[in-house]
Amino acid sequence: MTALVVIGIAVGMLLIVRSSPDVEPFDPRSSASDGANGAVLLLEDLGASVIISSSAPQTGDDERVLLIADRLNEAQRRDLLAFVEAGGVAIVADPASTLHGATSTGAISVSGDVIADVFGSGNQLPADVEANVARGTCTVRSLESLRGVFSPRGLLFPVVADQQRCFGDAAHAFVLVRTVGAGVVVGLGDNNVITNGYLRYADNAGLVTALLAPTNGERVRIMIGTEAKPSVSDIGTGDETLIDLVRPGVWMALSQLALAFVVFCFARGIRPGRAVREPSPTPIAGNELIVATSNLMQRAHHHQRAAWLIRGEFYRQLVGHFRTAPDISIDRLSALVAARTGIEAAELRAVLIDDAVDDPADANDTLLQLSERIDQLRSRLLALSTQQSETR
Fold first, then answer.
1. 201-240 pLDDT tens trace
2. Which of 158, 173, 198, 211 is deepest in the core (most CB within 10 A)?
3. Mean pLDDT of 278-291
4. Which residues 6+ apart lie within 8 Å of 81 measured at CB?
5. Which 8-state DSSP code applies to residue 90?
6. For the packed helices 345-353 and 360-391, what is the interaxial angle rounded to 10 degrees?
7. How far, in Å, CA of 84 to CA of 106, rounded?
8. φ and ψ of 223, to 5 deg
9. Residue 173 contacts residue 77 (beta carbons within 8 Å)
10. Which of 378, 264, 256, 245 has its CA nearest to residue 311?
């Protein structure tokens, strides 16, 4: 039995408990501070259709691709470039990605001193705006309405002549637009601006929506790549369950064990031979002693004594019920009960005093009649007492 319980608990744990792998930073399925689930919810709230996939769109598809962290393999990078060259739009937020296109030579890290040197004091945002990169010189039309972004560890990349840019000046910019074939690649100086922890600061959310969902009904694909760790949803997807993975032979063995257990229960539950009658246990304590005493009194022809015992029990019940002195006389008790209940005192006195016939031939019938008369009186007394209590 213990082994069956242990096996049942183990199977239950396998069915209930699932693996919970750690999710990497910049994962669009993660709600952690360094995850990007907030950007997904923001885009969907604005009417965009968001797809999280490890593959690039088909050439010619009307989608915009967001690459937060470059965990793509070479084949995926080729497919993404082919999509862009055919006229697609890709936003690469990872400055270290080879798809970004900007050169790190001459890039400036984002800090208060560097921004002051690059933009000048006249381009600094007011103190109540949580931004450390002002719009500055902006040639990207969709970003002209923004004021600045907050990027704690961002980079300002060198600008090539006539290259579209925003959040910078003529020499350095946080956002760069690069033409690839018939499409464009928009590179950002920091992918932290898209994470849940920084999306709410400054115009970081505006930057994401302006690039990915400028109009209602946009289709956005967030590429995570095959090198990204699987999330809980990835592990939990699929049509097969643990029951489907168990081989049929195992189920047959379990069914046979269950059938054998049922047969064993029936075999042990059947008792061979005819039924043996057994005396029922006495429900009242001391009843066997009473029966034995009655048998002895009957054999010794002590019918008169038995009548005394029956009358004495009834006498004690009347004394206790009407709360009288335990040594009250039968005459006074009969008169008291008659006054309170209306029963004839002579009737009570006859039951409590009259002797039973001591003839052995009639003694049993006389005792039976005495018991019946006492039971009738007891029932009448209880009924009258109940009516008087309800009247009061």
1. 888 888 889 888 888 888 999 988 765 555 444 545 556 6
2. 173
3. 60
4. 99, 180
5. E
6. 140
7. 27
8. -90, 130
9. no
10. 378
